[in-house]
Amino acid sequence: MTAFSDLPDTDFELEATTGGDGALRVKLAGDLTWDATDELLTAVRAHLASAAGPGDVHLDCARMTLCDSMGLSTFLALHRDTTAAEARCAR
């Protein structure tokens, strides 16, 4: 059995860029846990509230290693936020 101390470092990383089409592309890596969810929510909500108007939000979770219940709750909140802003949240 593997001890938690033997597991690789999986700090949360977020890279957010806005493309020429106005869509926000967010690359997620590491563990999306309760202590990292505010960073993701802040990035997406700032995009949705931007003066240029909201564009779609694309989430790339290919390098995400773990998502706890707060991470799942965050994805649901992002879906509600993008829907309210008449944008799409895609993966």
Categorize the overall geometry: globular
Give the strand tally.
4
- Structural Rg: 14 Å
Fraction in helix:
25-40%
Oligomer: single chain
Strand adjacency order, main sheet: 1-2-3-4
| CATH class category label | Alpha Beta
The CATH topology name reads Transcription Regulator spoIIAA
CATH architecture descriptor name = 2-Layer Sandwich
CA-to-CA gap between the ends? 33 Å
Strand proportion, as a percent range, falls in 25-35%
Major sheet, described briefly? Answer: 4 strands, mixed
Provide keyphrases for this structure:
91 residues, alpha/beta, four-stranded mixed beta sheet
Q: What does this 3D model show about the protein?
A:
This protein has 91 residues and is an alpha/beta fold. It has a single domain, classed as 2-Layer Sandwich (Transcription Regulator spoIIAA), CATH 3.30.750.24. The protein contains two helices and four strands; from the N terminus they run ββαβαβ. The protein has helices at 37-48, 69-84; strands spanning 13-18, 24-32, 57-67, 89-90. Strand 2 (24-32), helix 1 (37-48) and strand 3 (57-67) form a beta-alpha-beta unit. Helix 1 (37-48) packs parallel to helix 2 (69-84).
